Amino acid sequence: MFEIRIHSRGGQGGVTAARLLAMAAFLDKKHATAAPFYGAERRGAPVTSFVRIDSEPIKIYSQIRSPNLIVVLDASIMDTVDVLQGIQKAGTVLINSPHPVDLPGVKVLTIDLTGIALAVDLVVSGSPILNTPVLGALARMGVISRESAEAAIRDMFSDERNVKAAEAAYKELVL
Amino acid sequence: MNDPVAMSRPKKGAAGLTGSWRTFRPVVDREACNACGLCAMYCPDGCINEDHEIDLDYCKGCGICAQECPKKAIKMEREER
Amino acid sequence: MAEIPKEEYLEKCTTACAGCTSSLTLRYVLKAAGPDTVLVVPACCTSILQGIYPNTSFSVPVYNIAFAAAAACASGMSEAFASMGKKTNVIVYAGDGGTIDIGIQALSGALERGTDFLYICYDNEAYGNTGMQRSGATPMGARTTTTPGGKTDAKKDLDRIVAAHNIPYQATATPAYPKDLYEKVKTALATPGPSFIHILAPCPPGWRIASDMSVTVGKLAVKTGSWVLWERKYGELRISSPSKSAMKKRAPLREYLSVQGRFKGISDSAVNELEQAIEKNIAQLAKEEAGEC
Amino acid sequence: MLTVATGNKAVAAAVKAAKPAVVAAYPITPQTEIVEQIAEYVTAGEMDARYIPVESEHSAMTACIGASITGVRSFTATSSHGLLYMHEMLHWAAGARLPIVMANVNRALGPGWNVWAEHTDAFSQRDTGWIQLFVSTVQEAYDTTLMAFRIAENTGILLPVMVNLDGFVLSHIMQSLETVEIGDYIPPMVLPHRIDTGNPAGYGTLTGPGDHFKFRWEIEKAMRNSPAVIADAEEEFAMRFGRKYGPVDEYLCDDADVLIVSMGTLGKEAEVAVDNLRKEGIKAGSLRIRWFRPFPELDISDRDLVVLDRGYSFGFGGVLTDSIKSRYRDSSLFSVVAGLGGQEVTYDDIAEFVRNRRMGEEYWFGVDA
């Protein structure tokens, strides 16, 4: 089982990213669950979402304790939340940041998702959308296939800029 | 009883012969009556018909008919039972 | 004016008190509505006066529902009939407690949603069914079992609360003027969307009057201006003719109060406040009718 | 069609397929997504229903009652305080024998405010006369909602049905979902006592002690008929759509020495615990209760029971525990109160309950030493 934990702020699309990821995994003919951990939806508050992907049906509902992959949609969250908690020894952290980030003991990938969203004008109510571009990065990492990422985005959003942003992220991420 | 819930069906005298509630009975003075119909109009229980006959099986003896009669043609008389 | 139908939809006889003006009201409501009608009745005197299972004295369907629930029940019913293409009248027939107090939330919601129904509040100005405890509709100075010294608060202004919902048709009535009442129910049912009629229903035991006096007292309420008959169609207010006549030469309020045992011993200051409220109400209605507000 | 959906969206999809004439609802977390989705279906013309956006849950249930008595299908959804606010009308709906279907997204009650999973809301409605079913997956939420209409409207039953799904844990999780073409799985609703202005009746008029008693017995008779009707709905569902359900969901129970008895999503988590315990040589099984009312017959003889309760009757004990104890007095039982207010209970925790079980005792997870 491959377990992913996504850290974001309310309104940034972490929950939707988890759902898109599960959808894409489903399109890859795998079993997947996506679950947010949140209560009252409040813009700006830290939100954690969980995605499990497996070849077998998934029965576990409890939160992910030792993720294989951690996605941080807002680097500023790392000031208040220990995003690395429980990460597996060979785990990876994907951080939305224009600058390289150094975290001891784990493999860190960074990508400027905010910049990508702004570049294609993927902005809603003044906020750059991160949940669709991050799918491109995850596809590049091999978590899901590129085709399924695109199909999942199209299934949920009609605005082509989402696909464009994901494509850009796919190309931009350096593994 | 086949109904799955309590369904009450319309029935004249659903609550029994309420005429027995009366202490005073209305008596119409046909001479004085000008058939204006106000008594029937105001009877709460619809006990007075077009001919100004009062259904004493159900009349509760409230006396509104006597009170509202412009000709004072209805008298409330003590029931003798 | 069309002739009032002779058909009666209340079988003889209900278990209403002798001289009950709610029974009188219902006769005319149902004459106006006809047989393709469902009454929705929350807890109130009318819940009880239908009679006891398996018999009922009502010959239209009556759906009895919980105290706070009448308007919401009518909402569901009205939408369901509409979904089937039926034109059945849905009429809530509720007392002042079920309307002004516990039922006001559901009423407000149903009015705001534009529910196609008629809501009738028959107002005997207290919780009659449980033996005359005060309600929000009890007038100042009236003695009830829970205001043994006379109510110290004013009657809640239900009509202006309802008016704030800007519904297509709203009226007041009293069965002391049955033709006026009948016409208003007819108009209400012919008007699509929510309609509301507030009916003053003098209550012999509750108001401590003789059973033959309930109609007379209803007339006195109108003649003193204590109860003003009016209707408002699509925002146009018209004061009804009995009240029009009454306003030309109003009877003193004391005539209305003194015949009712519930006002026995009412203080001069309470009477004064009641009089002021009447003046204010009439002035506002007159201004509205004249198009000045 | 195979897709992915949340528990809430699955319920909404099932309701759409069931084609109710009236949906009356009030939003409350974590149920809101159900009624939002239905409102969207209605607005988009994908669902030919009247959506009544009532001002309270009390009115939501009452509007469903008003609609149902005219003979049309109605649905509502709620959660937690919303369910308790409509409590009075739940009794009314069952007493009036109206086949209303409701999804209840199980959530704790305040104070303090807590929006997470707990079964206290549904347990508080235990004695209202509603059939209560508890589900554990997105697929089961969809399937059971469809079954609920068929069960409720069966003329031998005519009782409202509540489908319970755990707040957030299931309402908001995304899992795969296979939707079906329901065909005539849910026959047209025929309410024998519907309002008919051509044949008027007084409903709920004053009913004396003797008669009232008879109608209460009628409710219980319907409840006693319901296991066969629910089983039939499940069998027919399995035949048509291939997914089989029963009063309980059994996992490796046959040879088990110890059974984990639970409801809702904890039942799935328990299966993982069973797998792990079996690797250690502990012959465990999982028995997930799907029907809460009517309460099913259980095959639990000669086994240790570890009962997980997500709701509690203060001054007495766990509510599921209570149901089992009162039905099976000789049962050997370890009562675990866990998961209240969304408390995290993992498969490791459940395995620990089994390993450290103290038969005859009660244990509050996370509180007791």
UniProtKB/TrEMBL annotation, chain A:
Catalytic activity, reaction form: 2 oxidized [2Fe-2S]-[ferredoxin] + pyruvate + CoA = 2 reduced [2Fe-2S]-[ferredoxin] + acetyl-CoA + CO2 + H(+)
InterPro entries assigned: Oxidoreductase_gamma_subunit (IPR051626), PorC_KorC (IPR011894), Pyrv/ketoisovalerate_OxRed_cat (IPR019752), Pyrv_flavodox_OxRed_cen (IPR002869)
Pfam families per record: POR
UniProt feature coiled coil, ranges: none
GO molecular function, one term: pyruvate synthase activity
Source species: Methanocalculus taiwanensis
Chain ranges of the Pyruvate/ketoisovalerate oxidoreductase catalytic domain: 10-170
Protein name (Swiss-Prot/TrEMBL): pyruvate synthase
Alphabetic keyword roster: Oxidoreductase, Pyruvate
EC primary class: oxidoreductase
EC number: 1.2.7.1
Matches recorded under NCBIfam families: PorC_KorC
Automatic annotation (TrEMBL), chain B:
Cofactor(s) it depends on: [4Fe-4S] cluster
Protein name according to UniProt: Ferredoxin
Domain 4Fe-4S ferredoxin-type span(s) in chain numbering: 24-49, 50-79
SUPFAM superfamilies the record matches: 4Fe-4S ferredoxins
Subunit structure: Heterotetramer of one alpha, one beta, one delta and one gamma chain.
UniProt keyword list: 4Fe-4S, Electron transport, Iron, Iron-sulfur, Metal-binding, Repeat, Transport
A single MF term (Gene Ontology): metal ion binding
Organism name: Methanocalculus taiwanensis
Organism phylogeny: Archaea, Methanobacteriati, Methanobacteriota, Stenosarchaea group, Methanomicrobia
Keyword field contains Electron transport: yes
Automatic annotation (TrEMBL), chain C:
Gene3D superfamilies: 3.40.50.970
GO MF assignments: oxidoreductase activity
SUPFAM superfamilies xref list: Thiamin diphosphate-binding fold (THDP-binding)
GO BP field: organic acid metabolic process; sulfur compound biosynthetic process
Top-rank taxon: Archaea
Domain Thiamine pyrophosphate enzyme TPP-binding: 57-199
Recorded coiled-coil stretches: none
Pfam family, one: TPP_enzyme_C
Region (Disordered): 133-154
Swiss-Prot/TrEMBL keywords: Oxidoreductase, Pyruvate
Keyword Phosphoprotein belongs to the record: no
Signal peptide as annotated in the record: none
Quaternary state and interactors: Heterotetramer of one alpha, one beta, one delta and one gamma chain.
Name under which the protein is recorded: Pyruvate synthase subunit beta
Organism encoding this protein: Methanocalculus taiwanensis
From TrEMBL, chain D:
Signal sequence bounds: none
Listed GO biological process terms: organic acid metabolic process; sulfur compound biosynthetic process
GO MF term set: oxidoreductase activity
Domain Pyruvate:ferredoxin oxidoreductase core, chain residue ranges per copy: 256-350
Positions of the Pyruvate flavodoxin/ferredoxin oxidoreductase pyrimidine binding domain: 14-234
Annotated Pfam families: PFOR_II (PF17147), POR_N (PF01855)
Keyword Nucleus: no
InterPro entries associated with the record: PFOR_II, Pyruvate:ferred/Flavod_OxRd, Pyrv_Fd/Flavodoxin_OxRdtase_N, THDP-binding, Transketo_C/PFOR_II
UniProt keyword annotations, A-Z: Oxidoreductase, Pyruvate
Complex and partners: Heterotetramer of one alpha, one beta, one delta and one gamma chain.
Name this protein carries in UniProt: Pyruvate ferredoxin oxidoreductase
Organism: Methanocalculus taiwanensis
